[in-house]
Design a protein that fits this description.
The complex is a heterodimer. In chain A, 21% of the residues lie in helices and 56% in strands. By secondary structure, chain A is an alpha+beta fold. Chain B is mostly beta strands. Chain B contains five helices and 42 strands. In chain B, the strands form seven sheets. Chain B has a 24-stranded antiparallel β-sheet that branches. In chain B, strands 1-6-7-4-5 form a five-stranded mixed β-sheet. In chain B, strands 16-15-41-40 form a four-stranded antiparallel β-sheet, with no helix packed on it. Chain B is globular and about 90 Å long. The N and C termini of chain B lie far apart (56 Å). Classes of the chains: A alpha+beta, B mainly beta.
């Protein structure tokens, strides 16, 4: 009896560790699936006029838990009159998996650019989705309503 | 080219008029007393080209103790006296620039001096100075595009009496020299000190003091009738102040006033061994040398009282040269061939850190960067009070050449044809590093350290074919005519001075990339490869004549020089920063030169004049087109008139000499907006000469004429270096 109990305990341990391992693998797979680059068009509304910028590259980087991502925008101008382009990263975008892909949402986030937090471009009302190879979302960068539509790009 | 056709007709006409006068054979024989300083197979007066010669007596009387002293005395030669010993630039026949390689070769007793930083030194015991004017590429190879200056030192074979001289004068200047012969050895030494002539008003002390010592030991031995061996060892050490540059602003010349250390110190060593064997049928001459240079330059690069940026340049270089030539021993045969090989290897270790100081960090880096960033976004700040940009270079240069020249003596005619194949290669290993601590306000709470390394290798090689063709006609015993077509080249290399531009731009690009901020302008991407430049070449067409009658001698020359693949510094199209090298220019020089000498019954006269019209045929620096403009720094005229008279007073002699030396006008920049007028400087000397001694008083610039020796721009400011003021020196020479 004692031997059977020990055997059962050991078996349970193996089952639990396998579950944990499976869970870890699942999380890692989840992270890998979210770690992607996209190439698309960014539209910024400035004084009621929409300004499109093509070939804007963004990069999604999930956190350790896999339940949120940071979205990095590379060399973007919010308006054509802006004399510089910037790299800007929006952290803390929540991710919710769906059958076809994922939903992305965030009420408020302070983006990072030029070495630190940029209050001037505080992100609000972030909403978006990933379906297959496509991504689309809308947000406010400070006072600039912005949207993005892109396709998966080889990393 | 129109002037050459009638001139050539005159040459041919004279040849017909004077045909039939017998040759004087002995004039075509090469003296065999000592090893020849020049490579030509004939006496200097029989060279089919322009040659200037200054003998020992004139060297002493005219106070010629360094290469700068030869300016204007040799027609067309202009070596402005400014800066420090390493900055002297040689201009000759419309050629010359502030690039690394010079246009004039320097030979001392047949030994080539490779590095132009070793050109400017004081000498004592020089028996003769010879200048071959115009391209001399066939026999002398690289960097002889404007000519070759050859110094012949005192030979032990002359058994000259020991000579000592001591001179003192303006600016507490002391010059002492000695030259004497002991057996097979000729020894000389010279020392010079000056407190300097220009006050740095910021530091309230002279900025250009000088202390220098030159030593020379020449050993020469004749073994039998056929073998001559010689070893020449020269050492020069100097420590001198900096650069007397005063700012020109609002049409006003301000005095020299800068706050950072500036100066130059140098140690140079040359040892050359020469051997000549006069065989029964072949004469062989071999020369080998080792050359070492160690120098250190500090420069306040902005030359103002603000702390903008400084430059230090430390060089340690070593080089070895070897040359072997063979010719017929019988100098009376119709055909006189000469064949030779030459090779050298040089390694230069160069450290050249540029340090941006607080004002420079603000104005050159931050203002430039922040002017492109919207203030609403923030601004870039750097915490460093000094930002060094370190550059270390190892530059190897190697060369191998083979040459041949044939001289044909046919009655009154001497025809010369020669060719040289010259291969040169170079390699530069660079290791540069900029380091700074920056912060983007208000995004970053603290400063972040950023290192920007830049390392790599650039190399190049080239093969030059350098021909020469000349004809000399001895019209009469007194008149000689010549025509020559010759080529020369100035070696290529790497312009390390541009690296500070490259690193400045790379640092800014790295900061912006690290921040993720991209300025809305094309990024400057000049690379190390853009510092490399190829050789430039020059073709010289020349007609000349020499006249000699008794103690009267005169020489005239007309020339045209065309330069191709001119080495230029340009900006990338549309940019005003990020200099790069290119071989895209073409220029031409038209000129006339004359020398006249005469002496009789104690009276002596020397006259040297040149006219040169040197212009860009094509030059666009990326922002401006200067085609057709005069080449800057090249004087249109050089003039030297020396007259003297010696009179016996009992058993003594009184010598009186006066000299008028003029140079100009010339442009200071490619656009011609800044010009220097023609100016004359008057000099004179009075000496009382006894048996074995001489006391004298001499002066330079006796009228204290004001002028400028140099002009440049730095960070948008203009600067001039003034010519030296009046100098009065008194001295004594003793011959034992």
């Amino acid at each position: 009896m004692k031997k059977i109990s020990i055997l059962l305990l050991a078996l349970m341990g193996v089952i639990v560790s396998c579950d944990n391992k499976d869970e870890l693998n699942a999380v890692q797979e989840e992270q890998k699936s979210m770690n992607k680059d996209y190439l698309g068009t960014m539209t910024v509304t400035f004084q009621t006029v929409d300004y499109d910028t093509d070939s804007v590259r963004i990069s999604l980087t999930p956190n350790a838990a896999g339940d949120s991502v940071s979205i990095a925008f590379y060399q973007v101008k919010f308006v054509p009159q802006m004399p510089v382009k910037v790299d800007i990263t929006v952290p803390g975008i929540a991710v919710s998996k769906t059958g076809q892909g994922a939903e992305l949402f965030c009420d408020e986030s302070i983006p990072l650019s030029a070495g630190g937090p940029t209050e001037r471009y505080k992100v609000t009302s972030f909403q978006g989705q990933i379906i297959g190879d496509s991504i689309s979302f809308s947000l406010n960068f400070g006072s600039y309503p912005t949207s993005y539509h892109g396709k998966l790009s080889v990393k | 080219m129109g002037i050459f056709a009638p001139a050539m007709t005159a040459v041919l006409l004279l040849s017909f008029l004077t045909a039939g006068t017998p040759l004087v054979d002995s004039l075509f024989q090469l003296p065999q007393v000592s090893i020849t300083a020049l490579k030509e197979q004939v006496p200097e007066e029989r060279i089919a080209g322009a040659v200037s010669t200054i003998q020992q007596e004139s060297i002493k009387r005219e106070g010629i103790y360094r290469p700068n002293s030869l300016s204007q005395k040799i027609p067309g030669l202009h070596i402005p006296d400014y800066g420090a010993s390493l900055t002297s630039t040689v201009y000759m026949r419309g050629l010359g620039s502030r690039m690394e390689n010079p246009v004039m070769g320097l030979y001392i007793d047949g030994i080539p001096v490779l590095d132009k930083n070793m050109y400017d030194f004081d000498w004592e015991g020089i028996s003769k100075v010879s200048m071959l004017r115009g391209p001399q590429g066939t026999l002398y190879g690289r960097n002889s595009m404007g000519g070759v200056l050859s110094l012949a030192t005192l030979s032990p074979a002359t058994d000259a009496a020991p000579t000592f001289n001591l001179e003192y004068g303006t600016a507490n200047t002391v010059r002492a020299g000695a030259a004497f012969i002991i057996g097979s050895n000729a020894l000389s030494a010279t020392y010079r000190h000056t407190d300097g002539y220009f006050l740095n008003t910021f530091k309230n002390s002279n900025c250009d003091p000088y202390n220098g010592l030159s030593l020379r030991w020449k050993w020469e031995r004749h073994s039998g009738e056929r073998l001559i061996m010689s070893n020449l060892l020269m050492a020069n050490v100097s420590r001198e102040g900096g650069f007397a540059y005063g700012q020109w602003k609002d049409d006003t010349q301000y005095p020299v006033s800068y706050n950072d250390e500036s100066g130059y110190s140098r140690l140079s060593l040359i040892d050359g061994y020469t051997l000549k064997y006069n065989g029964k049928s072949i004469t062989t001459q071999a020369a080998a040398s080792v050359q070492i240079l160690a120098d250190d330059m500090h420069m306040d690069q902005d030359y103002t009282s603000r702390s903008v940026f400084t430059l230090q340049q430390r060089q340690n270089s070593g080089a070895a040269t070897v040359e072997l030539s063979m010719r017929k021993s019988d100098t009376r045969s119709v055909w006189q061939p000469q064949t030779g090989v030459f090779s050298f290897f040089k390694r230069n270790h160069l450290d050249a850190p540029v340090t941006f100081k607080c004002d420079g960090i603000e104005s050159l880096i931050l203002d430039n960067a922040n002017s492109h960033i919207p203030t609403s976004m923030g601004y870039l700040a750097i915490s460093d009070m000094e930002m060094p940009v370190n550059s270390c270079f190892f530059i190897d240069t190697w060369n191998a050449a083979v040459y041949h020249e044939s001289v044909f003596d046919i009655e009154r005619w001497r025809l010369t044809a020669g060719i040289r194949l010259d291969y040169e290669g170079g390699r530069m290993d660079y290791d540069c590093l900029a380091r700074l601590n920056y912060r983007f306000v208000p995004n970053m709470s603290g400063y972040k350290e950023l290192s920007v390394p830049y390392t790599g290798t650039v190399s190049h090689s080239c093969l030059e074919v350098i021909p020469k063709l000349s004809v000399l006609f001895k019209a009469t015993d007194r008149i000689t005519l010549y025509a020559t077509l010759s080529k020369g080249y100035r070696a290529g290399g790497f312009n390390t001075q541009i690296f500070s531009d490259i690193l400045q731009n790379r640092t800014m690009n790295a900061v912006m990339s690290d921040l993720g901020v991209y300025l809305d302008r094309p990024s400057v991407s000049v690379l190390a490869q853009n510092t490399e430049y190829d050789p430039e070449t020059a073709w010289n067409m020349e007609l000349g004549t020499r006249i000699r009658k008794g103690t009267f001698n005169a020489a005239f020359a007309l020339y045209r020089i065309d330069v191709q693949n001119q080495q230029l510094t340009v900006f990338p199209p549309g940019m005003s920063t990020g200099r790069m090298m290119t071989n895209a220019g073409r220029s031409r020089s038209l000129g006339a030169e004359t020398e006249v000498g005469w002496n009789r019954d104690g009276f002596r006269l020397q006259f040297a004049w040149s006219w040169c019209d040197a212009r860009f045929v094509w030059f666009n620096d990326g922002n401006n087109d200067y085609s057709g403009n005069r080449i800057p720094y090249i004087p249109e005229h050089t003039l030297n008139i020396s007259a003297g008279y010696s009179i016996k007073v009992k058993d003594k002699t009184v010598d009186a000499d006066v000299t008028f030396a003029g140079v100009g006008p010339f442009n200071w920049d490619e656009s011609g907006t800044r010009q220097e007028q023609f100016r004359i400087r008057t000099g004179g000397r009075i000496a009382l000469v006894g048996s074995g001694w001489e006391i004298y008083v001499r002066g330079e610039n006796l009228t204290n004429a004001r002028g400028n020796a140099f002009y440049f721009k730095s960070v948008g400011n203009e600067f001039f270096a003034a010519t030296k003021p009046r100098m009065i020196m008194t001295g004594i020479t003793i011959k034992l």
